Amino acid sequence: MKHPDNQPPITQTGQKWISDALRENLPDLITTTPNITCSDWVDYPLFMVMRWDINNVYHIHEDFLQTYLGYSVMDLDADDTELIFLDNDPDVSNKRANAIWKSVFSRRSNKKVGNSLDTIRTLRDLANATTPGARYLCLRSATFGLHAGLTTLSRQVAVSTECPSSPVLRAFADFMLTRLGLPPVYDTIPNEPTASATSILSISQYALSSDLRDAEITPLLERFPFTNLSEPPLIITFSSRVATVKGPVERQITNEKALLSAMLTAIREKFQKEHITKPFIFRRIDFAKVHLIREQIAILRESDVLVGAHGAAFVYSLYMPRWGGVVELQHPSRMYNFHFENIAKLTGREYSVLPIGDPVMNINDVVAQTVNIVAKVLTKRAQVEGGN
């Protein structure tokens, strides 16, 4: 990539994340064939995506963010654009991500494939849908998305970011929430017929869904004689990692029950000692058992505090209330991973990280940091509720 004489050259660090497709040899890759007679046309916009991942929701969000940036730069309307996968679309368990792709980026109804939430065409599907015998399929408008490794979620995950904030991440979060019919966080999208970003979500239908009951969640409303039940509760969500029928899960906490008991006891003591009138909910969620990504997002949208071992579901901290807080517990295999610290810094949320082993031996430290984050979140939330 060439730079103007008055601009500094691309640094060696920068070269590490710039895709080969963006280097100066790009013009040499472009070829043209003159005098083509189009046999068939696609007369509406297409957006081409080569996905980074189809299983890990953090990496899927890298694809979502890069696509959002592409739509923004090209001024594409998701209601009139068809998303095309350049990779194969295997029939795997995480085809559930297709529902997000469809709802957020590709609502255009296509008579060839219907409007099923898990049906997104590939390039081969597009070619096969042409008129029989057609030689050249012409596209009125086609945009090819960049590799997801170029996004804010991808760069510098091995170092703590020095950036104080990211307007892009805030706008992306609001865009995703609005397209999914959930209240935005930052009011970056004007004139949307959704709840205000300053509105407080009560315990929603997501906390009572069958998926969550299957996940052994007990959203108990904690109250004391001085509790004001008319106040919306503080919701503390513990992200649990549990072995499945498919096999063991990395980064489990085998003494989780003892850890949760200690956390709940300490939080109760804080509320009692300080006569905090707000009720609170302390709930444990295994996100692997919550089958809809939209529900997973909604759970964090209504959570004030997120606690748990490092895992992909922490990407949903993007959608937490802007006064929210995160306590990340890092096993040795995930030390010096700054994914979620960077998200918290760039979006202005409270954050704390502690190294742990399995079983967790430093329960007192984890509990103390959790209570500290709860206190900070209560203060920030009170400021918002008070109109400050």
Characterization of the model:
This protein is α/β, with parallel strands linked by helices. The protein folds into two domains: about 120 residues, no CATH class; about 220 residues, 3-Layer(aba) Sandwich (Rossmann fold). About 30% of the residues lie in helices and about 15% in strands. The chain has eleven helices and nine strands. The protein has a six-stranded mixed sheet, with helices on both faces. Helix 8 packs across helix 11. This is EGF domain-specific O-linked N-acetylglucosamine transferase. InterPro entries: Glyco_transf_61_cat (IPR049625), Glycosyltransferase_61 (IPR007657).
Main traits of this protein?
glycosyltransferase, 3-stranded parallel β-sheet, disordered N terminus, Rossmann fold, Glycosyltransferase_61, 388 residues, Glyco_transf_61_cat, alpha/beta, 11 helices, 6-stranded mixed β-sheet
Tell me the layout of helices and strands:
Blueprint: H1 12-17, H2 26-29, E1 40-49, H3 57-74, E2 82-85, H4 97-105, H5 123-128, E3 137-144, H6 167-179, H7 210-214, E4 220-222, E5 234-239, H8 256-273, E6 280-285, H9 293-301, E7 305-309, E8 325-330, H10 339-347, E9 350-355, H11 363-385
Parallel strand pairs: 1-2, 1-3, 5-6, 5-7, 7-8, 8-9
Antiparallel strand pairs: 4-6
Helix pairs in contact: 8-11
